């Protein structure tokens, strides 16, 4: 450990070493690699696949999908990309706990708090970058890009925070990789159904979902307008911070005992 310290510092220190380990792990795991490439692949599939499908439904059944485009954007892009990036971070953290790597981090200069900070930052930044690419590539947000850009940026920022919250939620409650996969699937159901619920519920009933952090990226998204974006951004960021602080304390307690 001591002999390798100068080399580790020269290549970015403990965080740089962890990043290199993560990259090698991602390249070796087909599922995690697919999740990493998911935002671009999903966006291109929507861009090339949605117009012909929409035209077919309109011609054959008289179903027009344009009115529900905001729902598709919210469910398939705005919340789905953070789900993928958060799943990567959560699964890597649980794997580190399972194979005993976290025991080494506890006694290393990095420490568990910095390790978790790294995981959360990577998940949020990766989600933000994925959304910055996927939203315009998907072709589902032309009106938002032209007229509602501040609200769209607010929605993307709040959505990126959901990736970090997913990492914390899974590591706070999952004791194994199997349990973490179950929790990720449960989060996927919530992230998929929530945009539809916000869209179709009566305006007053929608606010029953306000305690859920993932509600706020949808609420400020252009096309929804459930909340004005400045107030929604403030409320969503505050709720995410409070939820994250609670999950972080629980996660640190679990990992310290682990």
UniProtKB/TrEMBL annotation:
Coiled-coil boundaries: none
Keywords: Membrane, Transmembrane, Transmembrane helix
Transmembrane residue ranges: 30-50, 70-94, 115-137, 149-175, 182-201, 229-248
Domain of life: Bacteria
Keyword GTP-binding: no
Protein name according to UniProt: Fluoroquinolone transport system permease protein
Organism phylogeny: Bacteria, Bacillati, Actinomycetota, Actinomycetes, Streptosporangiales
């Amino acid at each position: 450990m001591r002999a390798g310290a100068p080399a580790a510092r020269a290549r970015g220190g403990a965080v740089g070493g962890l990043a290199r380990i993560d990259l090698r792990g991602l390249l070796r795991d087909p599922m995690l690699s697919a999740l990493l490439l998911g935002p671009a692949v999903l966006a291109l599939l929507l861009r090339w696949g949605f117009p012909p499908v929409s035209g077919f439904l309109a011609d054959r059944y008289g179903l027009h999908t344009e009115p529900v485009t905001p729902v598709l954007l919210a469910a398939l892009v705005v919340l789905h990309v953070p789900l993928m990036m958060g799943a990567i971070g959560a699964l890597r953290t649980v794997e580190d706990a399972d194979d005993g790597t976290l025991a080494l981090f506890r006694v290393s200069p990095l420490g568990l708090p910095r390790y978790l900070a790294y995981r959360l930052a990577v998940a949020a930044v990766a989600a933000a970058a994925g959304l910055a690419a996927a939203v315009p590539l998907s072709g589902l947000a032309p009106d938002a890009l032209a007229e509602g850009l501040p609200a769209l940026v607010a929605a993307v920022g709040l959505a990126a925070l959901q990736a970090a919250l997913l990492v914390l939620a899974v590591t706070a409650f999952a004791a194994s990789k199997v349990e973490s996969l179950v929790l990720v699937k449960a989060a996927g159901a919530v992230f998929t159904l929530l945009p539809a619920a916000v869209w179709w519920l009566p305006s007053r009933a929608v606010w029953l979902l306000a305690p859920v952090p993932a509600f706020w990226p949808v609420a400020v998204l252009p096309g929804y307008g459930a909340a004005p974006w400045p107030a929604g951004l403030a409320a969503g960021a505050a709720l995410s911070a409070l939820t994250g602080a609670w999950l972080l304390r629980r996660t640190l307690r679990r990992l310290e005992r682990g």
